[in-house]
Amino acid sequence: MAKCIKIRNFDTFLFIYLHLLLLFKKNNMKHLFILLFSIVSSSMIFGQNTYEARQTRTEWFREARFGMFIHWGIYAVPARGEWVKNRENISTENYQQYFDAFDPVDYNPAEWAKLAKKAGMKYAVITAKHHDGFCLFDSKYTDYKATKTLARRDLIREFVDAFRAEGLKVGFYYSLLDWYQPNFERKDEKFDEYIDYMHKQVEELVTNYGKIDILWFDYSYGEYRGEKWKATKLIEMVKKHQPHVIIDNRLGGNMMADTPEIYAGDFGGPEQITPPAVIKDNAGRPVPWELCLTLNNSWGYNKNDFNYKTAHNVIYTLINCVSKNGNLLLNVGPDAKGNIPKRSVEILEEVGEWMSANHEAIYGCGPAQLEKPEWGWYTQKGDVIYAHVTNFNIGQVCLRGMDGKIKSATLLADGTEIRLGEISNINTNGPYVGKNDIFLTSLMPRMGTPPPNDASSIKVAKLLLQK
Ligand code: GLC
To answer: The pTM is what?
Structure first.
């Protein structure tokens, strides 16, 4: 099907219209040439923002499904979360003590990258600058950066090198808010100076570190959204340097619209909430999305927060996301010395064990066109359906309406055959069971599985569909 070029910008429309007029009037080759050039260039800019172009750009992202979020900065010193300056009303002068004390002697991003890879993660997004304005990267537009602390080096450069070396994709979180820059949130023309600063820093991030896979802007609120950030200009600049990069949806556009703004984003970013279903745009088409989630209840290192999720919770959530066409970006908050908290490491390692046996049911998978079963979730890739049994379940696992549709069933973790059949207890046949229901009779002990408490209790049955 021929792709039509949509003209979404009045200036472009006027430009083309005028040249058409001149062309007809003068029958002039020069105008024909300018006209063709303007059509091609406008389609290059705006064509990037069609649904199809976004699907192509996000292909690797939808395949990857699982990433690591890293919140790290000088707020790790007070260790009360990344909002500490704002929440406790700490002046910039008083906050300076944390800049002076920041000395990440244990920072070894190669270890972080190995951990992410072991956990089954395929990409990582790090806070290049958070709301407090401190930059982990060597920006030439500020001295409020890692190179001026006791670290004396560009911590982002090392992050990028280490994660790429493990074959992971890399992304930068960049805070639109900035509590250090005096021109931020001004109501006068000085605000433009902040915008200029912000654009220049983003340009540094997309030009000094090679190929960047994700840009994660955070966040818009009230009148501070969209063109208040000069978002069109910002993203045109970004795309000039990194045409393939994918961006989140927090610059304030509407990615659900039929013709989203160029800055509307490539994926939705629900925070600390799993959406109840596949997320769709206004035309009813599924859009990529990513749940961002803390491992305890804090993004930045918080020494008093021991409310950790279990590995079981994490895997359960990951499967939940994938079954709705989403990703999971799971956060770690390294401490002031550069260590990922011990408990986080343990959880990620346990997640990794499960992933090494079951990743096939996650990577590149999406929703199955089946009703959600009570014992867990389905995911699907081509003609394979994965039945993830995550919940406590009495009796054999029922695949509703699937009788005659499955060629074979095996346990994904070790390839063991799973027998399919009718439920063996005669008293439960008949009115209790649907006509087309079939059971995985040898997946679980017949009298009920023990309540799930560790990750290994999550079993995945691989169901090959009849052609
Ligand atoms: C919120 C918070 C921020 C955190 C982010 C992660 O926007 O302000 O601290 O980085 O969520 O999604």
So the answer is: 0.91
Domain assignments of the chain as residue spans, ordered by start = 10-54, 58-361, 376-465
CATH superfamily membership of 58-361:
Glycosidases (3.20.20.80)
- Contact 219 CB / ligand 1 (< 6 Å): yes
Verify whether ligand 1 is closer than 6 Å to residue 229 (CB atom): no
CA 81 to ligand 1: nearest atom: 9
3-state secondary structure of 67: strand
Tell me the pairing of strands 438-440 and 397-399: antiparallel
Nearest ligand 1 atom to alpha carbon 175:
10
What is the per-residue pLDDT across 253-293, written as a single tens digit (0 to 9) for each? 999 999 999 999 999 999 999 999 999 999 999 999 999 99
d(CA 279, CA 282): 10
**What are the angstrom distances between the C-alpha of 299 and each of 130, 155, 188, 221?**
11, 19, 33, 20
Query: For ligand 1, is residue 134 a contact (CB within 6 Å)?
Result: no
Residue 341 DSSP one-character state:
P
- Which CATH architecture best describes the domain 376-465? Sandwich (2.60)
Residues 425/403, Cβ–Cβ less than 8 Å? no
How many angstroms is it from 216 CA to the middle of ligand 1?
11
Helices 342-358 and 311-322, packing angle to 10 deg? 50
Pocket of ligand 1 contains residue 75 by CB under 6 Å: no
Which single residue is written with the structure tokens 């499955």? 406
